Each structure stands twice: as C-alpha cells, then as structure tokens.
Amino acid sequence: METLALLTSIETKIKKLQLRNERLEKDNEELKKTVFEYLQKLELQKKNVDQTKHELMALQLSKTTNMDTAHLKKELDHYIYMIDKCIASIHVK
Predict the structure, then answer these.
(1) pLDDT tens across 34-59, in order?
(2) What gap in Å lies between CA 93 and CA 62, rounded to an integer?
C-alpha cells in the first residue's frame, strides 16, 4: 500500500507540475506579446520624436533665414542710401 500511495502522490505532483508548467508557458507568451507591443510603441515614439526634432530644426532655420533676410535688406537699403548720397554730391559739384 505504501508503494501505491507513493505512486499516487508522485502522479498528483506530476499533474500539478504539468499544469503549472502550462500556466507558466501561457504567462510567458503573454509577457512576450506585451513586451513586443511596448517595443513597437517605443519605436513609434522615437520616430515621432525624431520627426518633431526635424520640424523644430526646420522652423529654427526658417526663422534664422528670415532674420538674415531682414538684416540683409536693411544693409542693402543702407548701401542704396549711401550710393544715392554719393550721386547727389556728384551732381551738386
């Protein structure tokens, strides 16, 4: 009888271990799926950040270009004024 009880006990433990193993494998698959989803989200966020950085750089560049254009226009107006002054002084003499 002891042998039969021992074998029954072992069989019960084996079934419990099989069930636990199946549950752990299922949990593992779910965790893998979740990690994969998070990695995809992270990659998408990285792409969004990169795109936003490029847009910001383009915006900053356009602002710089507008400032440079305004500065160049101001300088050009100053040179035209100086040339007009020179021409006016030549006509007076």
Answers:
(1) 999 999 999 999 999 999 999 999 88
(2) 47
First to last CA, the chain: 136
Q: How far apart are alpha carbons 76 and 70 in whole angstroms?
A: 10
Q: CA 34, CA 41: separation in Å to the nearest integer?
A: 11
The pair of structure tokens assigned to 6 is 């021992």
Burial class of residue 53 in the structure, from the number of CB atoms within 10 Å of its CB (0-12 exposed, 13-18 middle, 19+ buried): exposed
What CA dihedral angle connects 45, 47, 49 and 55, to 10 degrees?
-150
Sign of CA dihedral 71, 73, 76, 78: negative
pLDDT band at 85 (very low <50, low <70, confident <90, very high): confident
